[in-house]
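Q: Could you predict the 3D structure of Phosphoserine aminotransferase?
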Amino acid sequence: MTFDRRIFNFAAGPATLPEETLRQAADEMLNWHGLGSSVMEISHRSKEFMAVYEETLHDLRTLMNIPNGYEILLLQGGGIGQNAAIPMNLMGLGKNGPKADFIVTGIWSEKSFKEAQKYGVAHLAASSEAEKFTTVPPRSAWNLSSDAAYVHICANETIGGVEFDHAPDVGNVPLVADVSSNILSKEMDVSQYGVLFAGAQKNIGPSGVTIVIVRKDLLGHSMPITPSVWDWAKEAANQSMLNTPPTFAIYMAGLSFKWLLKQGGVKAIAKQNQAKADLLYECIDQSSLYENRIAKLYRSRMNVTFFLKDEALNAEFLAQSHAAGLVALRGHKAVGGMRASIYNAMPIEGVKALVEFMRDFERRA
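A: Sure. Here are the predicted structure tokens for Phosphoserine aminotransferase:
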């Protein structure tokens, strides 16, 4: 099936991008800034691209109010890569050897937990697996170690639709957070974290660049086995350019940051995101056909998961929604059901169209 108009793309990532940034990129594709070439065809060390790089960092620092005591790295390898890089850079800070605490609230934090076991002691401090990953374990139940180098959380579980409602207090130990699917969706106090990391392909731009925001005093502690490309201190010393960086992904991220600034910044977009999530959850909660299984306090504003109580209707729901231009609503294969990812670039018109379809489908079911 083909469409003669833009669809409403609810994919979890790579995800929908602001139409304005796509049009600008298209306009600049063959002749960027009068150079007679695209931004992808110029040297990453040229003064022209370095200006893009510096401006991208500046705008991200402005949007997130990142203190000067934090380094911003623009790397590759996605969150999966950082699942290895984080323990290799930080586990050595453990008081009695390489060790870190993990709060497991879904598939992504579980992946981080399992990967870290290759580099030291990964201690499971709390898990909501017994609750089928429908909640965040209460802070009072966390069994944090006294000798851990850091505490790791996934701030928003893209697959399950669980989101921390605030940054948990873990004392003087650095808090490391995977924010791949909720970065820039709401205000975050960066000073409450030791490390924030995110793949760009959900809420920022195309896949290819991974953002790591790390407190500067946490640099320089990598294990001897750490490959240079994963060594944060070496990357920081080389402006994230030990190897050729993903130049087009960085350029697109920069356009996204400009777009977000035009919307009024993170505070303004957070209000829009909350309105979108409220609209969709209200539809689900008022329905006799759909249900959301996540504890209300921890419902994700970015990845809204829901199930049809009569799962025999799943295939028809997906076929009809796709025909209506509401695309990529199938839930992740690990959990089933449906998932609507409503990132910054998803307009409220898309959510309204989805809600209208869902109510109409229910009437006809």
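Q: Anything worth pointing out?
A: Residues 265-285 form the longest helix (21 residues).
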